[in-house]
Design brief:
Number of strands: 0
Largest sheet: none
InterPro entries: DUF624
Number of domains: 2
Structural class: mainly alpha
Keywords: Membrane, Transmembrane, Transmembrane helix
Number of helices: 9
Order of helices and strands: HHHHHHHHH
Helix content: over 70%
Organism: Jeotgalibacillus proteolyticus
Shape: globular
Protein name: DUF624 domain-containing protein
């Protein structure tokens, strides 16, 4: 029902463009080229709203599926396979598969990668917990060594956060060994300063949008960040492949 309501706005502009004729709306004073431009404008608006309605519906649908599959795994075991499957779906959209059904492919990917995604995800979580524990210990002491250690740990945590983000797009884009899935996101983080900035800007914008419109929380908080990180990562992969080809 929601999808039909969204599409209706797109069709509205198309109908209005058909109704515009030289004999109506006082347009007789204008030439035929002016009228055609007006009709073309309404047609473009109609196409824009139709396309926008499709994207809104897809985003909401995927986010609800993501939340449902997190719960399906009891949250603890559902979080990482659900997130990997969400990234796989956004990758499919970016490679031209926007019209393909979501649920069937999503659930298949969820089942096939359930244990591997959990293994990778919880290893990364353990590493983050270790860094935070070290940071907590360092803050309990004073002196120059403590200050240097704190700055170093904060830097490592920053690299860790971006590496954790890049784990998911790397996992769904490349077929690698378990070891490479653990290592390569860190390497990509270190050599991709511009990508890190773009990802940070996009996530801040999404966070600001959700903060200002909390009603969006059930519908977009997972998919929009995933789509942005996936898009930026795929562009970076292309750059890296071009560099290696030369």
């Amino acid at each position: 029902m929601l999808r039909s309501h969204l599409r209706r706005y797109g069709h509205l502009f198309h109908y209005v463009s058909i109704l515009i004729r030289p004999s109506c709306l006082g347009l007789r004073m204008y030439g035929s080229s002016d009228i055609e431009r007006v009709r073309d404008m309404f047609n473009r608006l109609g196409s824009f709203f139709t396309e926008a309605s499709l994207w809104i519906w897809k985003i909401m649908q995927l986010n609800l599926i993501w939340l449902a599959h997190i719960l399906l795994g009891g949250v603890i075991l559902g979080l990482f396979p659900a997130t990997v499957s969400m990234f796989a779906t956004t990758r499919k959209w970016l490679t031209g598969g926007l019209d393909s059904p979501i649920l069937k492919d999503y659930h298949r990917y969820y089942r096939e990668n359930f244990w591997k995604a959990n293994g990778l995800g919880w290893i990364y979580v353990s590493l983050g917990a270790f860094l935070l524990f070290d940071l907590h210990l360092v803050t309990q002491i004073t002196g120059m060594i403590a200050l240097v250690s704190t700055m170093l740990l904060l830097f490592l945590l920053l690299i860790y956060v971006f590496s954790f983000l890049y784990l998911f797009p790397y996992y769904v884009h490349f077929s690698q060994s378990f070891k490479q899935y653990l290592i390569q996101p860190f390497i990509i983080t270190v050599i991709s300063f511009k990508q890190n900035i773009l990802v940070a800007i996009g996530l801040i914008m999404v966070g600001s949008l959700i903060y200002q419109m909390p009603g969006l929380i059930p519908f977009v908080p997972g998919v929009m960040p995933a789509y942005w990180v996936m898009k930026v990562s795929m562009n970076r992969y292309k750059e890296m492949q071009l560099t290696h080809s030369h």
